Amino acid sequence: MDAIDRKIIREIQKDGALTNLELSEKVNLSPSPCLRRVKNLEKTGLIQGYTAIIDPDAYGLPINAFVSIRLSEQTDSRIKAFEDAIQTLDEVLDCYLMSGQQDYLLRVVSSSLKSYENFIREKLTRIPGISFLESNFAFGQVKRKNIYPDIS
Q1: pTM of the prediction?
Q2: What are the helix (H) ranges across 15-112?
């Protein structure tokens, strides 16, 4: 990956709906080589997909909770069972394997505190092997950035 690829990535991160012509103008390439570079970035897996950024409040999911999870044991089978179960829960938008006291950090969205409680009681705590669960709620979002820093 060179400096032009990085420019392409930054522009796509700013606006994933750019046409190839618009993108090529922003990175000072002609359209054909620009498209080849984008296709190569997709093929190598550096660009993994395209998505829209949705306002969670307007969508009806104003509750944003961060849930720390500790497993009762860190065996391969327990870890796999937990990670497989998390894949099935639509409310969990992000799941990170962590260092430190907690094993996982989840970002969970919900339409209300009552629906969040139901999610915890009926779904999350039914996953075998969870020994500790702590929820922290976001009052608001101070910063959201979808553009990686320039490391060149």
Answers
A1: 0.86
A2: 20-26, 31-43, 56-59, 76-87
CATH classification number, 56-137, choose in 2.30.42.10, 3.30.70.920, 3.40.50.970, 2.60.40.1180: 3.30.70.920
What does the pLDDT look like over 10-50, one tens digit per residue? 999 999 999 999 999 999 999 999 999 999 999 999 999 99
Q: How many CB atoms lie within 10 A of CB 16?
A: 14
Domain map (residue ranges) of the chain: 3-43, 56-137
For 70-85, what is each residue's pLDDT tens digit?
999 999 999 999 999 9
Q: 3-43: what fold? A: Arc Repressor Mutant, subunit A (1.10.10)
